[in-house]
Amino acid sequence: MLRASLLAAILSLTFPAAQAAPITPLTATQVLNQMNVVAKNTINSSSHVDGRTYAGGSVSGGEYGGHISSATASNYAGLTAGGAVSNVHVNGGGAVVGGSISNSIVNSGGTVVKGSASNSTFNGNATVAGGAANTNFNGKQTATDAMKAADAAASSTNFNQVLANLSTSLSSLGSTGSTVDFSGNKATFNAKANASGVAVFDLSAIDEALFKLGEFQFNLNGASTVIFNTDIISATIGANFLGGAAQAIGSKAIWNFYNAENLTINNQFGGSVLAVNALLTNNQNIEGGVYVEDLVQRGEIHLQAFTGNVDFLDKPRAGVPEPGSIALVLTGLLALGCVRLRRRNT
C-alpha cells in the first residue's frame, strides 16, 4: 500500500493531471495560415478582407471576415484591433477591440470592446467595458466561451516578433537554383525546389528592373513553398500575373520584402506580402495574405490560406523533456528505489 501511495504521489508531481490547454502563441506558419491580414500599426480601408484581420493600432473603414467559414479554424476573431475601430463592418467571426468602437456593425459573432461603443450595432453577443451610446445590442451582453477565447488570443501572439523573425530568417536563405528570365516586358519565374519542396528566389540583383515590368509568368515545377526574397526599399508593382497565376500561387508563395518601407500594388497580385516595416497600398486585389506595418487598402484581400511550411526555419526539438522534468522523474525513481530497498532489508 505504501509503495502504491508513494508511486502515485511521485507521478502526480512529475506528470500533473491534464488541464484545459491554454491559448498558445502562433508559429510563423500558423500566422500565415490563420490570419489573412496583420498590420503592426494601422489599417485604413475602403474594401474588404475575406479572412481574419489583426491590427496593433486603429482600424478605419472596411469589411472583415467576409468568408470566415472557409478560413482555417482559429481562436482569433474576424477582426482584432489594439486601438480604436470606426466605420467597419464585421461579417463573420466577431471582433475584439482594444479601444473604442464607433459607427460600426458586427453582423456575426461575439464582440469584446475594452473601451466605449457609439452609433454601432452588435447582432451577436457583446460586452462593452465603457459606456455605450446610440448602440443596438441584438444579442446578450454576456461573454461566450468563443468570445473569451478570442479575447485571450488577442494578446497571445507577438505578431511583430514572429513576422520580423520570419522575414529575417527567409532573407538569409540562399537561392535553390530558381531563376528569372527576362523577355521584353515579361519576366518568367522558373522555380527549382529543394528536397523539402521549397524553392527560393534571390531577386536582390534584379528587383529594381523586375518590378517595372508589365507581365509575370510562373513555372513552379512542383514546388510546394516558394520564397521570393527582395531587398528593394520602395516599389510600385503593376505586373499582370499571366494565366491566372495570382490565384494559382496565392497559397504557396511568400514575397519577402525585407527592406521595404513603401509598396504600392496596382494590379492583381498573388502570394503573401511580407513587408513588416512597410506601408502597403493595394489598389487592386491580393490573392493571399498581407503582413505589413501599415495598410491602406483599396482593393480586396482574398482568402488564400498558406499551405506551405516555414516552421523549418526555427524548428525546436520535439519530444525532449525539459531538464527540470528529467531531474524530478529521476528523484522520484530514486525515492521509489529506496523504499524497495528498505522493505527488502526488513
Q: What does this molecule look like?
A:
This protein is an alpha/beta fold and 346 residues long. It contains seven helices and 31 strands. It has helices at residues 2-14, 28-34, 145-154, 159-171, 207-210, 245-249, 323-345, and strands spanning 35-39, 43-45, 52-55, 59-60, 63-64, 79-81, 85-86, 89-90, 95-97, 101-102, 105-106, 111-113, 117-118, 121-122, 126-128, 132-133, 136-137, 179-183, 186-190, 198-202, 215-219, 225-230, 234-237, 240-241, 253-257, 262-265, 269-270, 272-282, 286-287, 290-297, 301-302. The chain has a 19-stranded parallel sheet that branches. Strands 5-8-11-14-17 form a five-stranded parallel sheet, with no helix packed on it. Helix 1 packs antiparallel against helix 7. The longest helix is centred in the last third of the chain and has 23 residues, at 323-345. The protein starts with a helix and ends with a helix. The relative contact order is 0.13. The model is unreliable at 14-20 and 316-330 (pLDDT under 50).
